[in-house]
Amino acid sequence: MSHLEAAVPELDSLLPSRANGQLRASLRPAVRTEVPGPRSRVLLDRQGLRESAARSYPRRLPIAVARAAGSFIEDADGNVFVDFLTGAGALPLGHSDREIVAEVRRQLEIFVHGLDFPSPAKDLFTERQLSMLPAAMRDRTRLHFAGPTGANAVDAAIKLCKTATGRESIVSFTGGFHGATAAAMAVSGSVSQKAPVPAGLPGVHFMPYPYCLRCPLGLSPAGCGTSCATLLERSLRDPLGGITRPAAVIVELVQGEGGVIPAPADFVKRLRDLTRELEIPLIVDEVQTGCGRTGTWFAFEQYGIEPDVIVASKGLSGLGLPVALVLYDERLDRWQPGAHTGTFRGNQLAFAGGAKMIEIFGRDHILANVLARGEQLMAGLRGLASSFPVIADVRGRGLMLGIELADPRTGEPSGEAARRVQQGCLRRGLILEVGGRADSVVRLLPPLNVSAGVVTAALDVLTEAVSGDA
C-alpha cells in the first residue's frame, strides 16, 4: 500500500466508533458540539490564565487538541476536523506519520542532542537535503544548522551576507514575513508587529513587491511585476538613489503571511539578474515554501534561478520537530568558528525524521500529488470565485493557496468576511488560517499527501461557509 493510500485507515484509531462508517466512506469531518465545546473551553480558559497575551492561533481557532493523525484533528470534545493549517506548514505529511514516528522513536534510543557534532543521523539528513537541490548547486552548497526556528536561520543568513560582503544594509519587500526575532522582524513588512518595539535593526530598505491585484505602485495588474522590477533596478543603480550597495536582498517567492502572493516570473528573473550583476547575495526565504509545498522541493526551482542563500525550516523534519538550515554558495563561507551558534541546532530526532521524509517523497511521488491536489483545489476555488462576488482573487502554487475576500461594492479587502468564512469552516469541521492585508485572505495549507477525497470534503465545507457568508 502506498503512503498516500495509507492515510485513510489511520482514521479508525482516531475517530469515535459511532462515526467510523460515515467518515470512512465520505472523509467528512464530524462536529457534534458547539465550537469550542465544553472540554475545550476549560483548557482554553486555563491557557488564558497562564500563558502570555501573545498567543494567537487559539484566539481564531478556539479548540483544544486531544490527538491527530494524517489530515485530521480530534479536539477534547470528540469533534473531528480536517486540518488545512498543518502546523502553519510544518507537517508536510500531516500529523504523526507512522513511518516517520517509527524512525524518530528508533533515534530516540540512540542519540538525541548533538550540538554541532557529526553523527550518522545528521550525515544522512545532510546528504539527502543536498540531493534535493538542483544538480548544478549541490557540490558548491554549504549547510549551516541554525537555531531551531526559521527566524533564527534568517538572522544567520543576514549575518552571513554582511560578513561575506562587508556591507551594512539589506533590501526586503513590502508584504514579506521572515520571522519575529529582532533581525527577522526588521526585514518583515508587518508594521503592527514592529511599531511597539522601538529602535529596531537599522539599514533595511523596503521595495514594492508585485502584489498585482492591488499594485503597490497604483498601476494595472498587467504591468505590476515589470514596474516593481524597474523601480528596484533604478533604485540600486542610481548613484543619487540614496541606497548604498546592500549586503543582501531577501525575498519570498510566494509570500505566505502576506497573503499567498506568488511573484511574477519576469520580476524574479530580473531580480536575479540584477543581484548577480551588482554582486549582491540573493537570499530566498523558503521557510514556508520549501519541502515541496509549492510542487517543487523549493519554490525557486519553478523560476529557473539559483539563489546565493536559501533559508529553510518548518517542514524539514517531516513531523514538526524543530530544525532550521541556511544553504549557501561556498564563496560566502567567510565565518569564523562560533560565528552563529545555538544549543539546540543538533536535533537528531529532526534529522532522522527529515531523512525518512525525503525517502517517502521519492518513493511515493509526493510532489506529483501536490500538483494534482493543487489543481483539484484550484479548480474548486475558481468555481467558488465565479459564483460569489465576495471572492476577489484565488491564487497560489501547489498546496499553498489563498482566497482573498473583498467588499463587492468597494473592492476593498474584507478581513471581516474572511473571519466569517474561517469561523463558518471551523463550525463545520475545517481548520483554515487567515492572513494578508486586513487579514482578508483565507489560506489553505493541507498535508502534501492529502487525498482527493479529503480535498473534496474540504471544498464542500468551504462552499457551505462562503455560501453562508454571501
Question: What features would you describe in this structure?
Answer:
The structure is a single chain. The chain is an alpha/beta fold. Helices cover 38% and strands 15% of the residues. The strands form four sheets. A seven-stranded mixed β-sheet has the order 4-12-11-10-7-5-6. A four-stranded mixed β-sheet has the order 1-2-3-15. It has a four-stranded antiparallel β-sheet with strand order 13-14-17-16. A hairpin with a 5-residue loop joins β8 and β9 (261-262). α5 packs antiparallel against α13, α6 (120-131) packs across α13 and α11 (221-237) runs parallel beside α12. The longest helix is centred in the last third of the chain and has 22 residues, at 366-387. The radius of gyration is 22 Å and the shape is globular. The protein starts with 19 loop residues before the first helix and ends with a helix. Mean pLDDT is 93; it is low at 4-11 and 13-26.
